[in-house]
């Protein structure tokens, strides 16, 4: 499943500091060797990498004669699908793909009643480090760190005993209580409201992607998610989908016309 948040400001950061951030609009962006290091190239200049941003997502293409390209520590031979927060190593340098973070207020710590069903729809999927490939639900708060009793235990030189807590709050995922920096889509944060598709990185190798319904669905009132509610009557003015019930009269009329034509052929065709 492709799970990408809306990227209204996608940038490529050159971590060596020699080049300004490259804004990645729709289209293909080529990167090659410059006197100051890796940077954008145009025209017939030789390129090492191409990054294409389109409706399908963000794609990395490696030139045929280029070796030792890694995304989040994993080698890439020719093509790779990227997401915001990915770290790309090539030609001795590091590139970081970042996306603008929507600032939303954190919910209060004591939220009652808690929607346990909505929280079950949220999970963290490991895409790097020792938890790669593992899916961890947010049915309860998850303490992340190197402590022996952590819900998600990770180790590394930059990992605190309790590095952070990620919890589901009525269908929203919230990062809080960070004892050290966390990379959210390439930006350093200590607390944030997360959205489906966000990449959360602890240190360099420990990476997770939040999976769940889009924020626009997860935050809707219960009455708008299909359950019976007095508030549902307020939406009666909204256009309803045209389903099978609307199409049945037309199908029935067409069937009657065809039956009448067949009857006429049987009656007059025998004479």
What does this structure look like?
- The chain is mainly beta and 271 residues long.
- Helices cover 13% and strands 36% of the residues.
- The chain has 3 helices and 22 strands.
- The strands form 4 sheets. Strands 2-1-11-10-7-8 form a 6-stranded antiparallel β-sheet, with no helix packed on it.
- Strand 12 (123-128) and strand 13 form a beta hairpin.
What is the element layout, followed by pairings?
Blueprint: E1 10-14, E2 22-23, E3 27-34, E4 37-41, E5 49-54, E6 57-62, E7 69-71, E8 74-76, E9 79-82, E10 87-90, E11 93-99, H1 116-120, E12 123-128, E13 135-137, E14 142-145, E15 152-153, E16 164-169, E17 172-176, E18 182-184, E19 187-189, E20 192-194, E21 199-202, E22 206-211, H2 215-218, H3 244-269
Parallel strand pairs: 14-15
Antiparallel strand pairs: 1-2, 1-11, 3-4, 3-5, 5-6, 6-9, 7-8, 7-10, 10-11, 12-13, 12-22, 14-16, 16-17, 17-20, 18-19, 18-21, 21-22
């Amino acid at each position: 499943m492709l799970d990408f948040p809306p990227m209204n400001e996608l940038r490529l950061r050159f971590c060596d500091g020699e080049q300004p951030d490259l804004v990645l609009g729709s289209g293909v962006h080529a990167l090659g060797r410059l006197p100051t290091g890796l940077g954008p190239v145009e025209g017939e200049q030789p390129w090492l990498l191409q990054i294409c941003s389109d409706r399908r997502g963000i794609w990395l293409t490696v030139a045929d004669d280029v070796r030792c390209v890694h995304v989040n520590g994993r080698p890439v031979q020719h093509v790779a699908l990227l997401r915001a927060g990915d770290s790309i190593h090539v030609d001795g340098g590091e590139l970081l793909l970042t996306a603008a973070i929507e600032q939303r207020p954190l919910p209060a710590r004591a939220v009652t009643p808690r929607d346990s069903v909505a929280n079950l729809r949220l999970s963290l999927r490991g895409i790097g480090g020792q938890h790669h490939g593992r899916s961890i639900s947010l049915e309860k708060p998850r303490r992340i760190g190197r402590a022996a009793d952590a819900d998600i235990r990770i180790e590394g030189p930059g990992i605190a005993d309790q590095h952070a807590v990620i919890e589901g709050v009525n269908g929203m995922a919230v990062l809080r209580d960070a004892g050290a920096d966390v990379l959210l889509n390439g930006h350093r944060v200590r607390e944030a409201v997360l959205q489906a598709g966000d990449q959360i990185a602890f240190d360099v190798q420990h990476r997770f992607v939040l999976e769940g319904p889009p924020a626009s669905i997860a935050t809707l009132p219960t009455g708008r998610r299909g359950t019976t509610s007095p508030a549902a009557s307020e939406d009666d003015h909204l256009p309803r989908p045209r389903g099978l019930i609307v199409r049945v009269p037309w199908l029935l009329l067409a069937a009657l016309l065809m039956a009448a034509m067949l009857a006429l052929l049987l009656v007059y065709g025998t004479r």
